Amino acid sequence: MTTIAQVRQVVQPLLQRHADLALVGRYLLIKPVHHFTRGIFIERGGSSPKPFVPMTSVSLLFNGSTRMRLGWGLELCYFSFEGVDDDLARQEKADRLEFIRWEIDHSPGIERMLRVIEIALDTLRPITTLETMVAFGTQPGNYTIPFERRVYTRLLIAVATGDLDQALEIIDAPSMKPREIRQYMDQKYPTFYPALVAHDRQELARILHELEATTVKNLKYDKVWESTPFPLELEYA
């Protein structure tokens, strides 16, 4: 399995070429980081010690995470380069297995991987708002749990964007998942539900900022994160 040190080694050219990039563990992040992360997560290749498995990753930040999550994205071996980079498209069509031979000891493959990563990063840079983040997360083909099934995430985004009626509908829905979330929030943040019912934006914003700071601390994002207001706050500033 490729190591974090090897990831750091291979992405150095990208870090030198692009001032808006930073590496946290295996996550090549686009700066600045506000309410969500966007970038390329470079996973290890199963039991083999050589391959890298890069994938796009957009992940919510104000959820109090204790571990790094991939969020939404796509393995870069499934990217299409038609009309984007004709040279890469030709190489992939000529020999797909060789094209995705992104291994630590295979220099041509690593050079191709870095070109692919740069193209993928360009698709992520326009994601600058929670609305565009949700649009990305709901695109067909993005891996992990579909957005509509991410009840906790949908609840937090509804609050953050100021759609408090929608947030109440989500948390009050008569199904097991919302009840579990309600119980969790009542235990961890007992003022959350009363503030939601009362449309107390100040208290809700305080809780979201606390959740975000918790994630930043847990995942060591402090050097790339910038604290900013939520739309919830700006709407009534």
Describe the structure using short key phrases.
alpha+beta, 12 helices
- In the sheet with the most strands, the strands line up as 1-2-3-4
Question: What is the first-to-last residue Cα distance?
Answer: 50 Å
Query: What share of the residues does DSSP label as strand, in percent?
Result: 5-15%
Total of helices: 12
Secondary-structure element string: HHEEEEHHHHHHHHHH
Please state the average pLDDT score. 91
Number of strand segments:
4
SS-based structural class?
alpha+beta
- Biggest sheet features: 4 strands, antiparallel
Radius of gyration: 20 Å
Helix content: 40-55%
Shape: elongated
Q: How many domains make up the coordinates?
A: 2
Task: Explain what this protein looks like in three dimensions.
The chain has helices at 4-10, 12-17, 86-94, 96-99, 107-124, 130-137, 151-160, 164-171, 176-188, 192-198, 201-219, 231-234; strands at 21-24, 27-30, 36-44, 52-60. The protein has 237 residues and is of the alpha+beta class. It folds into two domains: 4-124, no CATH class; 143-234, no CATH class. The protein has a four-stranded antiparallel β-sheet with strand order 1-2-3-4. The protein is elongated and about 60 Å long. The model has no long low-confidence stretch (mean pLDDT 91).
